[in-house]
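Any chance you could type out a protein's amino acid sequence plus the matching backbone structure tokens because I've never seen that pairing?

——
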Amino acid sequence: MKTIKIISAVVALALFMAGCEQSPWNTDELSENVTMAEEEVASLKSAEATDCDVDAAKFGGHLMKGGMMAGGQYLFLGRNFPPCATVTVEGDDFPKTITIDYTEGCTGRMGLQKKGTLTIEMSDTILNEGAIYTVTFFDMTIGNREVEKTIVFENLGQNDEGNWEISMEMLSTTTFEKEGEVFIIVREFSGIQEWLAGFDTPETADDQFLINGSGTITVNEELKFERTVTDLKIDRACKYPLSGIIEITRGDETMTIDFGAGECDNIALVTKDGESEEIELNACKFREGFNRHERHMKNNKGWW
């Protein structure tokens, strides 16, 4: 009888251990602090929520005349322009100003509600080398984020492969609250868009381009990170970046976000200190099973 009880206990323990091995890590016990990787993919998602509208409107704007107002599936804006946004144009000739109005609230490509307005000041048609267009946000809220942003684009012409190259200088301030903590994040970025397809059409579904460049991220005026973007490929037939690397550095600590080798999927791989974790690009969170304690961008070492 004693032997049977011992065997039963061993079997029960084995089943318990197998159950533990198969169950995902309980993340309920882990704090929801903001990591730099999660903030980075959330920033990319927030930017794309308006970038695709801007690219459609700046193309439409070089054809539209002053006083024209358009929205939805208007000829000059392409079939994918959100019907909840309105575009107006000031000026028949260049320079001219285009305004995109989201004041009633508008949910578009990335599923984030946008509210506010932005302007695109164009010095010339976008198809002319040397054309400069400046994008400015006014009272803009994207999802749960308040965003102030100015971006200056310049058409550098076509490279040896025949691809249009556009320089970009960006300054943005994003404010949001999480877990009772307010974050004010300032981003500066200088880079180049190399357009592989879609630059000279109003549609956004055929847009493909690479982004390369570098800049800084400053958090609450106290933390400063360096950021380098290498061959980040955007194909708007997919909601997520297809490939490329973003490297974020502070001091002697470096983290990389790898978007893969070209597949349209919801996952990127984050690597730091020789260890890797998967992050979901739509939710902007690490996948279930991310079991690193004391994770926060304020950490000097470890998983920030």
About this structure: The longest strand covers residues 181-197. The chain is about 15% helix and 45% strand. The first helix runs from residue 2 to 22. Residues 192 and 271 are 25 Å apart (CA to CA).
